[in-house]
Amino acid sequence: xxxxxxxxxxxxxxxxxxxxxxxxxxxxxxxxxxxxxxxxxxxxxxxxxxxxxxxxxxxxxxxxxxxxxxxxxxxxxxxxxxxxxxxxxxxxxxxxxxxxxxxxxxxxxxxxxxxxxxxxxxxxxxxxxxxxxxxxxxxxxxxxxxxxxxxxxxxxxxxxxxxxxxxxxxxxxxxxxxxxxxxxxxxxxxxx
Length: 192
Fold this sequence. Notes:
By secondary structure, the chain is of the alpha/beta class. The protein has helices spanning about 10-15, 20-35, 40-45, 50-65, 70-80, 85-95, 135-150, 165-170, 180-185; strands at about 100-105, 110-115, 120-125, 130-135, 150-155, 160, 175.
């Protein structure tokens, strides 16, 4: 069973924040331990800063390896100008780079079936240029996932997903990919 960190937990927020914020927390923790604890307990207080140090290192590593934001924005802009066939090819190449076996589907609800090991993910992305994405497309994707007995489903869009669709996706376990996440997906790692 895969455990998922709450996106509003302190550590999740620090992982999304600049790396130096976690290290600042470490410094404050160490200073407070030295100032407030008896001398024999200071090392134990300092050890309490270790999780923040680990989070700072992880955040720093992620930020160091993250693609250039200007390149991500450029990739998204370019994706908006592509025809469906070209966009599908770009996505297919991105999924293959991630180690998936990609099968194109001739279905209204899902466009790709991704296999990695024993896990199967259905991907819907044909409406990627729509201005607003509602619940109906997500319902169709979930129905296709259930019918094919897939493990997961992903919905890809350039435009905004309505609040109702976002709630539905959360309730039904649909992964929404848009914005910077989509830009990072389609960016060729060699060109980052």
